[in-house]
Amino acid sequence: MLTSRWAHAVYALAGVAALVALCLLVHPLREAIGHAAHGDTKALREQLRGTGAAGVALLYGLMLAHVVVIFPAEITNMVAGFTYGIPLGILICTTGWFLSGLGTYALGVIAGRPLIEKLAGAGRVASAERMMDRGGWEFLLVVRLLPFVPFSIVGYVAGATNVPLFRFAWTTLLGAIPLVTLAVVLGSRLSDFSLGDPLVWGSILVFVLLIAVGHPVGRRFQARAKTKA
């Protein structure tokens, strides 16, 4: 058992090291991560201007880098909407975040529960595990709809606590679409932002509603997990 845990830790560290090295050594990706980390949508838009397919590849690289480098996911989505328009922006971001989600799940599996508990705290991991177990696919789907829940953390914990891969995969793909769409739509309007635009105020309204219902929904799942524990 101890040898297995050490092996998992080594594999996890190797995977993280490889991703970090990629982020540091590929200059455009390193620059894009810096813009995203600082919330600088203007600089990221300028970096992608006129890059075509290379810009799409850079966006995918940015979303995969999110497995180990945490930054606001909305930055990438808004810039994709501005640069490539709504339909293509949604396609790029939905597939990109799906792959990123699978990466966080894999890291959680490889790292194992002990390492994830050290990083996130044993109490939080145990609570999340109960909610994922008792709430089933509904919890995993709902948690993807909540703007304030860190995207990567869900994957780490799901992988470390043995949530079925298929359940995690389809809920991540389907659950990511609403928030991705909202951010892409808002991003497509960055050049001439106006609250009078129905797409803008409609997206903002939906975003606010998701935040408003997020807290009571989360409390309900927590209560269900405690009563069935």
Structural class, please? Answer: mainly alpha
**How confident overall, as mean pLDDT?**
79
Biggest β-sheet strands, sense, barrel: none
Q: What string gives the helices and strands in order?
A: HHHHHHHHHH
Describe the structure.
The structure is a single chain. This protein has 10 helices and no strands. By secondary structure, it is mainly alpha-helical.
Write a compact overview of the structure shown.
The protein is mostly helical. It has one domain.
Keywords:
single chain; 229 residues; mainly alpha; 10 helices; 0% strand
Write the layout of secondary structure elements.
Layout (H helix, E strand, L loop, with lengths): L1 H24 L1 H11 L3 H8 L4 H13 L7 H12 L1 H35 L1 H24 L5 H10 L4 H24 L9 H31 L1
Helix pairs in contact: 1-2, 1-6, 2-3, 2-4, 3-5, 4-6, 5-6, 5-9, 6-7, 6-8, 6-9, 7-8, 7-9, 7-10, 9-10
